[in-house]
Amino acid sequence: MSIFSLTLRRDLLLVIREPAQGMAVLAFFVMAASLFPIGVGPESALLRRIAPGIIWVAALLAVLLGLPRLFEADFLDGTLEQMVVGPVSLGLLVLGKIVAHWLSTGVPIVLLSPLLAIQFSLDRDSLLVMVGSLLPGTLLLSLIGAIGSALTLGLRNSGVLVTVLVLPLYVPVLVFGAGALEADLAGMDAAAHLYLLVALLALALFFAPWVTAAALRIALE
Amino acid sequence: MNRWLHFASPQRFYPLAGRLMPWLVVSAALLALAGLAIGLLIAPSDAQQGEGYRIIFVHVPASWMSMFIYLVMAFWAGVGLVLNTRLSSMMAQALAPTGAMFALLSLLTGALWGKPMWGAWWVWDARLTSELILLFLYLGFIALYSSIEDPSRADRASAVLALVGAVNVPIIYFSVKWWSTLHQGASVSLTRSPSMAVTMLWGMGIMVLAFWAYAIAVALARVRCIILEREARAEWVKYAVE
Amino acid sequence: MPWNSHWVGVADFLAMGGYASYVWISIGACALAVLIESLQLRRRHRAAARRVSQLRGEA
Q1: What is the least distance, in Å, from the CA of B130 to any CA of chain A?
Q2: Average pLDDT over residues A108-115
Q3: Distance set, CA B191 to CA B39, B186, B188 (Å)
Q4: Distance of alpha carbon A162 from its chain centroid, rounded?
Q5: ipTM for the complex?
């Protein structure tokens, strides 16, 4: 088995054994998005109008909150150091960890998102666009976030710091992701947004694991 | 090539920077005086914006500098990362605060220009929004650098961030532009700059040169501080500071 | 174009056609930022130099 699938399986097993942390991120996603109707009022036309932005920002922040889990445990018990000095390709290993992180954070967020779509009175067609944008979008968020997570590894204020580093880089993802849903709600074609999102994803899949590996090497030296 | 590598060591660069600085400061001051004289006294007033457009003589140079400095900073950070030259990384660190300052000045003067022209201090148009995100990128770079105690790790970690940021700047700019055209209905179209008379262009060009000279002078001054702080125990430093 | 074809007086120049506060605050803010940065760098350089001479004294 390749190092990618080995890491993927190992990290997923760890998540299954300790599901509490992943649950907290999902709870945050639903709760944060549910606060907005309480804040702006229950008028469904208004809620439908702001739904794309709110659902997307909530998903983005939830992924951000889950980032520390990516490397922290392995860093603290010294496993990460073994991985870095080991003979295997660190880039592939990192990709395995990122995909595992996405499967345990991003995908559950996508699976829960229809619940929010109901809260914000979106119809069924828009729901498809929402899921279609969130699915590649959350993987993209994990890939970019991994770079920030690796750069801030083991620093005292890594929690806030990773937010400051990563949020500006998340802007294009938010623009195309929320834009897809918004275009759909406005009766326009969402395809262009989704293509751009997937193009960014291809770019990130190629570069982000490699950059993250370099950042891990710097952090662990 | 060897001549340039000669100055790549902090020891050789420190006195060189010290010798260059006065010239740069004087040229920055003279250029700024000339640019402001042309911009404020000689350039005609704009047909639509009256005298209010004269803010561009500081706004445009500040915006340009904030963008250039990020690229130059990422370049030096990258050189430092690849060639492992300390001085290049110090250069990147020295540029960041000045770049952030120009981004902030660009936003401030943009707001002061926007209020009388568009009736609002802030509008979410593509340029202002990109500039704001650029400021965030600078803040992230500075925050990361100052959170890492080991200078060598700080240099290399922030270099990775600067390079990732530099790759992202065009993507961010494109996405924000895309976003703002999508929302054209909500915001006013206000990116049209006043049609420029020749004297206006001269005034602006000279102001840009003045900002360049200032930025280089300040970066050199900051590199000198960083060299002294980091190499305080080196033998040569004892003789460099009288 | 003749030199200062539209010069009418100091008061008029300072008034900036009614945009005085916007134009002068913009230029003033840039000048202030430059001043603060220069002073801060001078202080930082002095502090660094002082530390170097302290270390020299200890040695």
Answers
A1: 10
A2: 93
A3: 21, 15, 9
A4: 13
A5: 0.91
